[in-house]
Amino acid sequence: MKKHSSLLLAVAAFVTAFFLHACRADDRSHACGAGIAVFYPATFDSVGLLPSLALVAEPSRTGTLPRGWKVKPLFSVEQGKNVITIPVGKDVDLYGTGEVVGALRRNGTSTTTWNLDNYVYALNEGKNLYQSHPWILGVRPDGSSFGILVDSPWRLEITLSDTTLVTTEGPAPRVLVIERDDPASVVKALGELTGKIEMPPLWALGFQQSRWSYFPDARVKEIADEFRKRNIPCDVIWMDIDYMDGFRVFTFDPARFPEPAALNDYLHESDFKAVYMIDPGIKKDSLYDVYRQGTDGDHWVKDKDGREFNGPVWPGACAFPDFTRPETREWWTGLYEDFLSTGIDGVWNDMNEPAVFRVESHTMPEDNLHRGGGVLPPGPHARYHNLYGMLMVKATREALMKYRPGKRPFVLSRANYIGGQRYAATWSGDNASRWEHLRMSIPMTLNLGLSGQPFNGADIGGFGGSARRDLLAHWMAVGVYYPFARNHSVQNSADQEPWAFGEEIENVSRRAINRRYMLLPYLYTLFREASVTGLPVARPLFFADTRDTSLRREEQAFLLGQDLVIVPRWAKAPRLPRGAWENFRLEEDEDDGYQPLLAIRPGAVIPVNKVIQSTVEYTTDSITLLVNPADDGTATGLLYDDDGDGYGYKNGDFALHRFTVSRRGDNALELDVERVEGTRDTRRQYRIGYVNGGKIRYSAWADDTTRVFPLVR
Ligand code: GLC
Predict the structure, then answer these.
(1) How far apart, in whole angstroms, are the C-alpha atoms of residue 315 and residue 69?
(2) Which stretches of 458-591 are assigned E, i.e. beta strand?
(3) Residue nearest atom 12 in ligand 1 by C-alpha distance
(4) How much is the pLDDT for 18?
(5) Within-domain flag for 270
(6) Domain boundary among 167, 194, 221
(7) Atom of ligand 1 nearest to the CA of 351
(8) Probe residue for ligand 1, chosen from 278, 463, 484, 493 as the CB with the greatest number of ligand atoms within 8 Å
C-alpha cells in the first residue's frame, strides 16, 4: 500500500512538474501590443540575452496570445544547438534579413548574423556582411503580412522557407511576431519596436564624394573646386584614413593635413561639409596619447585570460575599446572634443565589426571578454560581437551632439545591429566595381530598408577594383536615388569622380545629380516620414500593390516613397505596378541613355525644386508640383520643410503641407494647400507641372494665395 501510494505521489509530482513546465513555457508567450506577440523558449536565459539592444523598450504583457494566431515559433535543442522552427505557410514571399547579397525575395536563402569585414562580399558566399538583422518580413498572396524578430545578438543561422529555421550556438532567444494587413504596416511596427532614424541634417541627403583617400589637403580642395567649377552639385567631401598620422585615430598627418581647421574652413566656404573617418582599433604605441589614456583608464577589450587583447588593423597592433562599458563610451565620446573643434561636420565609423587582420575569423576571438557595466552584464565577445559597432556609434553620436550642440549629428557606420538605425546611417561596405554589384545594390538597399534601416546606400561606382566608363555612368544614374548617395572607391583604383571619363559621362553624372537635388523636397519629406513612421525611403515595387503577386520579385525597378518609380535603364522586362503611372523628365535634355525612367503614381503630387549646387542654397520658396491626377481628376502629396539642421523642428518649427490638386477642365488645375502640422512660416510661389503622355505642361508661377493654375505650355 505504502509502496503504491509513493508511486502515485511520484507520478502526480511528475505530471504536475510536466504541466507546470509546459505551462510556464506557454504562459510566457503573450501579446505585447495589438497584433504583436512574444514567444519565449522554456530555457530562456535572461542573463545571456537581456537587455535587448534591438528593442527600445521591454515588451510588456498586454494579454494572452490571441486565438487563431498564425505564426508560432517552436523551440527545440538539436545536436547541442538551440533551434527555432517557424512554419510560415506556403506561398509566402520572404524578405528582410538586413544587409544581404542575392535576390530581393529571400525564400530558399540562408543568412548568418555575424558582422564580417567581407571585402567584395567574397567570404562565406556573402551569407554574412557587415551588419546583422535577425528579422524576416513575410508577405502572403493576399498581401497580409507578418514580421519575425529573433531577439538575439548572438550568431544565428537563418534559413528561409515555408518552414523557416533559425539555429544558434548561443542561448535560446525569444521571438517577437508582428501580424498586420500589409507589409508597410509590419515595417512600421518594427519601427515602433526597434526605433526609427532621427531627422538627419539636410546636407546628409546631398550628393557626396569620397575615395580612399584624397590626400594631401590640397587634393581635397582640388576635388571640391572641380565640383563647383563644373557645376556638379555636391554637399560632402569625405576624409578616409590617410588624413591620420600613421593611422592613429583622432590625429592628423602633420605633413599632409597640417591645418585641418583651415581645410574645413575652405570646404565650408564653398558650401561643402567635411566627414572624417574614425576606426575603433587604437595603435598600440606608448607614445600615442589615445593609447596611453585607454590603457590608464583600463578601456580595452581583454582576452580570455584578462589581458589586453591586441590584433592588427591599419596601424599594426591595436587595442580595442570595450564599448560595453559606460565609462569607456564616455571616454570615447570625450575624444571627439578637440577633433570636432576643427570644424568636422560628420563622422564615419569604419572597421567596427570589429575587423582584425591576419586571422581567419577576420575579427577578435569569441572568448575575449567584455566587462559590461550599467545595464549590460559582462560577457564573451560571442555575445557582444554584433553589438560592438552599434555601441561604438552610439558613443560617437553622443559626441557629435555634445560638441556640436544645436546641430543634428551625422554618423555613418559600417557595422551595426538591428535597431542601430537610431544612431547611424550605413553603406553596404566594400562592394566591387562590377555590373553584378550595381544590380545587387538595389535589393540590398531595399532589404535594409525593410529591416528598419532606411538611411543606406552602396558605394556609387563600386569600391573594389576600377569602374569602367559605362559602369560608372549607369551607377551614377541609379545611385543618386539611394537614400544615401556617395561615390567611393578603393585605394589605387582608377579615378571615378563624375568627370573622370570625359565630357559625356560628366554630363550623365551632372544630370543624375541634378535630378537628386531637384527631388530633394520629396526626398526630405520621405526622410521625415521615415523618422516618424519607420517606413523605408526606397521601397520594393510590391509596396505599390501588395496584392499583385507578380511584383514580388521585381528588384530592378523600385519605389522612392509611394509616388515615384525608378526604372534603371538596364532593367530587363521590369514588372511595373498596374494603373496609369506616368513617365516624366525633370530636365529637357535628360534622355542620354543612362538616366532611369521616372514615373509618378496616379493620384500623386511630387514637390520638386530647381537645381542647386549644394543644400546650403536650399529653400522651398519656389516649388513645382508635379501632378498626375487619378481617374477622379485629383491628386495629393505632402511637403515637409524645416531649418535643415538643428532641433527647432522638435518644437514645432517645421511645416508639413498637404497639396490637393484637382483638374479644372483640360487646361487648368486647382490647388488647395493645407497645413497639416507645424508652425513654421512659409511664403511660397508654386507652379504646377501636369504630367501627361510622357510630357509635362506647366502653369505660370503664382503665390500661395492662388487657387487656379491655368496651364501655359
Ligand atoms: C574599409 C572601408 C572602406 C575604406 C577603407 C579604408 O575597407 O570599407 O570604405 O575606404 O576601409 O579606410
Answers:
(1) 54
(2) 459-460, 486-487, 538-540, 558-560, 564-567, 582-584
(3) 241
(4) 40
(5) no
(6) 194
(7) 1
(8) 463
Let me know if residue 636 belongs to a domain.
yes
Partners of 425 in beta bridges: 412
Instruction: Give a yes or no: residue 226 inside a domain.
Output: no
Ligand 1 atom closest to the CA of 491, numbered from 1: 10
Count of residues making up the chain = 713
φ, ψ of residue 564 to 5 degrees: the values are: -130, 125
Using alpha carbons, select from 592, 624, 422, 398 the residue that is nearest to residue 508: 592
- Its pTM stands at 0.96
**Which bin fits 692, alpha (ψ -120 to 50), beta or left (φ > 0)?**
beta
Ligand 1: centre distance to CA 281 (Å): 13
To the query of whether residue 353 is one of the catalytic residues in this protein, the response is: yes
pLDDT exceeds cutoff 70 at 6: no
CATH of the domain at 137: 2.60.40.1760
CA gyration radius for the chain?
26
Whose C-alpha lies nearest to ligand 1, atom 4? Answer: 212
| Cα 425 to ligand 1 centre (Å) | 16
Residue 588: pLDDT band by 50, 70, 90 thresholds?
Answer: confident
Domain assignment present for residue 120? The answer is yes
Counted domains in the chain:
2
Taking the centre of ligand 1 as the mean of its atom positions, its distance from the CA of residue 249, in whole angstroms, is 14
Q: Which of 351, 459, 493, 496 to mutate to test the pocket of ligand 1 (most atoms within 8 A of CB)?
A: 351
Give the CA distances from residue 501 to residues 267, 381, 459, in Å, rounded to whole numbers and listed in that order: 25, 46, 18
The grid cell for 330 is 564616455
- CB-based pocket (< 6 A), ligand 1: 212, 240-241, 277, 350, 414, 429-430, 488
Distance 491 CA to ligand 1 centre (A): 9
> Is residue 613 scored above 60 in pLDDT?
yes
Question: Of 176, 194, 212, which marks where a domain is finished?
Answer: 194
Which CATH number is 582's domain given? Answer: 2.60.40.1180
Q: Which of 99, 117, 353, 497 is catalytic?
A: 353
pLDDT at 24 over 90: no
Is the model's pLDDT at 609 over the cut of 90? yes
136-164: pLDDT as tens digits: 999 999 999 999 999 999 999 999 999 99
Nearest CA, atom 10, ligand 1: 212
What are the tens digits of pLDDT across the range 399-437?
999 999 999 999 999 999 999 999 999 999 999 999 999
d(CA 404, CA 398): 10
Distance 212 CA to ligand 1 centre (A): 7
Mean pLDDT of 593-616: 98
User: Of the residues 115, 240, 241, 493, which should be mutated to test ligand 1's pocket, given the most ligand atoms within 8 Å of the CB?
Assistant: 240
Average pLDDT over residues 273-297: 98
Cis before 498 (ω within 30) = no
- Predicted pLDDT at 713: 72
pLDDT at 23 (0 to 100): 36
Domain residues for the domain of 704 are 527-710
In the reported structure, the alpha carbon of residue 260 is separated from the centroid of ligand 1 by a whole-number distance in angstroms of: 21
Mean pLDDT calculated for residue range 78-101: 97
**pLDDT > 60? residue 579:** yes
Angle at 601 between CA 697 and CA 485, to 5 degrees: 95
The single residue of 350, 398, 554, 555 carrying the catalytic annotation is 350
**Band of pLDDT at residue 21, cut at 50, 70 and 90:** very low
Q: Which of 93, 430, 554, 555 is catalytic?
A: 430
